[in-house]
Fold:
Amino acid sequence: MLPFLKKILNQPDNTTIIPGAVFVDVRSKNEFASGHLAGALNIPLEQVESQAEKLKSYPQVVVYCRSGNRSAHAKKLLTSSGLGQIVDGGSLSDAKSLAEKAGIHVGELIKEALPAVSPEVAALKDENTLKVLIPTDFSVQADFSYLLVRNLEEHLSVDIHFLHVLDFPDTVTIDGNGNVETCGEIDIDYVKGQKRIAEAKLNQLKVLYGDAVSIHLQFGKITDTIIEFAESNHYDLIVMGTKGVWGVKEKIASTEAQMVARRSNVPLLSLMCDRSDLIIKDILFVHDFMEDDHTHIPLMHTFSKYFDASYHMLYIHNDQTVDREKVQENIRKHAVAHNLKKYQGHVVVATDIEAGVNEFLKSQDADLVFVGTHGKGGFFHKSGAESLIKHLFKPIISFHFNTN
Structure:
């Protein structure tokens, strides 16, 4: 991880590790396999609550992840499940330090064999460049977005663009030459000062990440400007970090990513934490397979082709009498239509999309989630994807699909 990120991420608990403590890595199984502490258990965050009873047999549980975001949430979940001795170990390196201070020799990180990529897929070279837009407010969430996109670059050709939007009213404009105009209600010197600060920060991104990245500065309402810029410049994907929203705050606030997901015709990849060690092998595709769907999803083809990933096609419904054979047949047709070679069909009965996804993830891990939404009512209304963006720590690609 970049050194400057570590200074501003969640700090681990400053707690003494007692004899018999168990270290629990709450990353996905493929992230865990990429490098973990010797002797650590792997319980993905989405399965932590269901494993709480088993963990009660240990005198102390130390949870950790890549950067400390998921471990902090895991501690909350285990504490609410009645466990008392829970330590937030923070990042992988922080947890290693805690273990060594306690006299526990963990040595080098253990790396396990990952699912083999077929020779045919390994030999593929992507024919097209994925044009990616990263809206940035210069926060750590934007840095997480960049690190994830760089991870994708191991398999794809990626053209990375950063966009910063200065939130000014329509009366303040900037032309193609960078000249600022205002109607006089807002001090033009103040606007120019904010513009200089933003330009300096954008230029610093090129220093950090290299001249290969492109930078853009726009004026306007943040959500509107992001969407208009992405659509008018024909981006393939928007990538945004989000802090998530829970509790009372959830009732009064939406994240910027939620609002972009609601309105953008360009697919959105949202994430809550550092995913720089993400390895994409299992993709969860949440979809209404009972609809007459005519949407072409280029990103699904791309990920299937270049990542050699398996798709878990999930249909969620609240009707116990749903015709499962019909659903499975529709899943098969959908897979054929979208040229998905490796897939499994699943049906979960739940009250809503979020509950169904959480129930599914208790038994089957996933590295990435695709979810399509439409403007109709029911489960697959846009609010379903927004709920996942608010609460699910998995990277999520949301898109709009069309039905007759």
Observations:
- Residues 188-209 form the longest helix (22 residues).
- The domain at 282-400 is CATH 3.40.50.620 (Rossmann fold).
- The CA atoms of residues 373 and 400 lie 5 Å apart.
